[in-house]
Amino acid sequence: MGAALALTSALGYGISDVLGGLASRRISPVRVALIGQVAGLCVAALALLAQASSAATGSDLAWGAASGIGTGMAMVFLFRGLSRGAMSVVVPVSAVGGVALPVLVSAAFLGERPPGLTWLGVLIALPALWFISGGSDQSGTTSRAAVYDGLGASGGIALQYLCLAQADASAGLWPILSGRAAAIVAVLVAAVTFMRNPTPRTAGAKSPTAFTFSVAAGVLAAGALTAYLYALRSEFVTVTVVLACLYPVVPVIIGLAFLGERLRTSQALGLAGALAATTLIVVA
């Protein structure tokens, strides 16, 4: 059950990325992120009202808020990397680092000891994510600043996953709610930074489609994080993080099926590796 929820989280994040990317072509990416986080906060609040009463301690709320700060950190570095035109560098580094750091921390400090097949799946998943995301800068040059942005984003992703894993199961969705609130604050800080030199986007500046996509992206991301939270109840952090971070598979498949994109050989290898890694982790 935990593995299925983690894969559901990956699916939600993947679709969220697609919708957010389409919205970012019409309005500022920071605005897309802010709208999404506000929508995620509203959905989390409604879900809490519908959920059976749960008790959250101050520690649970603090871990949730720290997770939200990680989300905000990831957005700050990711948007800065994208503003420098280095998507092919930032995305792979952030995806792979977002997996590697939680896995290493969980094994070294949290005492997790997954079986051998799980470790084999992890080792296959890391390069698979790199290939799926693009592998390297197509221009043949790698910007040092872009690599730093990717590492910063991966740190935020790792913080998000690791901190949320520390919340007690009895807290229910309260850590998700506190995390969305903290993420809004973090994105606002990012907005102040980016709005000093905003990227001009006149076409579609008031696009209702972009607003709808932004809201949907935020709702899906909140749902994906909720699926990740419940997956932790029955799975290792190492397993849950690796499966949840297979989200780059979704934009590749959607691009092939609906956006007329072509699959490069490296991406085909990455997809095959991701499938193999998922199989190993699930059956372990």
Automatic annotation (TrEMBL):
Protein's organism: Mycolicibacterium chitae (Mycobacterium chitae)
InterPro entries in alphabetical order: EamA_dom (IPR000620), EmrE-like (IPR037185)
Sorted UniProt keywords: Membrane, Transmembrane, Transmembrane helix
Recorded superkingdom: Bacteria
Family affiliation: Belongs to the EamA transporter family.
Pfam families for this protein: EamA (PF00892)
SUPFAM superfamilies associated with the record: Multidrug resistance efflux transporter EmrE
EamA domain mapped to chain residues: 2-133, 185-282
Protein name per the record: Permease of the drug/metabolite transporter (DMT) superfamily
Ranges in a coiled coil: none
GO cellular component: membrane
TM region(s), chain numbering: 32-50, 62-82, 89-110, 116-133, 173-195, 207-230, 236-259, 266-283
